Amino acid sequence: MVYQANAARYESMEYRRCGRSGLKLPAISLGLWHNFGDSTLLENSRQLLHRAFDSGITHLDLANNYGPPPGSAEENFGRILREDFLPYRDELIISSKAGYTMWEGPYGDWGSRKYLISSLDQSLKRMGLEYVDIFYHHRPDPETPLEETMRALDSVVRQGKALYVGISNYPAELAAQAIDILNSLGTPCLIHQPRYSMFERWVEGSLLNVLQEKGVGSIAFSPLAGGQLTDRYLDGIPADSRAASGSKFLNAEQLTEDKLKKVRKLNAIAQRRGQKLSQMALAWVLRGDKVTSVLIGASKISQIDDAVGMLDNRHFTAAELAEIEEILV
């Protein structure tokens, strides 16, 4: 059957202005890092995208190396886009990135003009797009001059291959320099994508302040700390969990008894608030409105529903914030 989007898709989602730009992003965005590569059933990926868009999630975040194998998430997304979402293209914010290893040789990694523009050309072909809405440099390059990397981002906007550009994984001082260079070129930095959660708070007091001062939006990835901030590990490490699988993104060594005690205490607060721990963790990242959007991953429709359900109770009392802070320190 031909996909027909939910007519009420915009009624329950919250849309937030990204920095000082004219663009608004949904409070919840969907990342295609996992569960959209060739190792995942295409129909499951399709259903996840349907539910996300039907729930008002208009921002879909990809990168050249998402899969596995690298490139396959963009290819599979491109197929679903052609078959189901072409009538809705102008309602979508589609982003991609380049900065990690994508192909062999000296031109398939980091931040040279050669790599970034070639990679975006490949991404556009895989997805069947004329342009992406946001193109990011995925990580700082310690060897390529920052000016060269930023000029490449400026070029792809001027060439019509991207509407906006952003950076990801940049520390505060380097982010400030990159933003200033882009401003001088006439292509403002729209957004920064850092890792941020209750268990990884390096952005506070440094990066977030820089972004606010310079009018740049932010979108937090891994807001659930790779699954730690869910009810999955309340009673230890299940045999079928990510932490038990030897995943490089979450392993049993990270889930110390001290960490699990914190998870249980946080879960008790979430229960008092009438929500799941994962929902509270997402709401916490959005507290204070310094972060524009939280970027979730999903392998099940229920995970998307849970994330969207967070919006029903995303604000905290001062007492709740103080109690959470006491647990986290």
Task: Report the strand count.
Answer: 10
Distance N to C terminus: 52 Å
* SSE order: EEEHEHEHEHEHEHEHHEHH
Binned strand content: 5-15%
Count up the helices. 10
CATH class assignment:
Alpha Beta
Itemize the secondary structure elements and their pairings.
Layout: E1 15-17, E2 24-26, E3 28-31, H1 42-54, E4 59-61, H2 72-85, E5 93-98, H3 113-127, E6 132-137, H4 146-158, E7 162-168, H5 172-185, E8 189-193, H6 207-214, E9 217-221, H7 257-272, H8 277-286, E10 293-296, H9 301-309, H10 318-328
Parallel strand pairs: 3-4, 3-10, 4-5, 5-6, 6-7, 7-8, 8-9, 9-10
Antiparallel strand pairs: 1-2
Helix pairs in contact: 3-4, 4-5, 5-6, 7-10
Describe the fold and architecture.
By secondary structure, the protein is an alpha/beta fold. It has one domain (15-328): TIM Barrel (Alpha-Beta Barrel), CATH 3.20.20. The chain is 37% helix and 14% strand. It has 10 helices and 10 strands. The chain has helices at residues 42-54, 72-85, 113-127, 146-158, 172-185, 207-214, 257-272, 277-286, 301-309, 318-328; strands spanning 15-17, 24-26, 28-31, 59-61, 93-98, 132-137, 162-168, 189-193, 217-221, 293-296. The strands form 2 sheets. Strands 3-4-5-6-7-8-9-10 form an 8-stranded parallel beta barrel, surrounded by 6 helices. The chain has a two-stranded antiparallel ribbon with strand order 1-2. The mean pLDDT is 95.
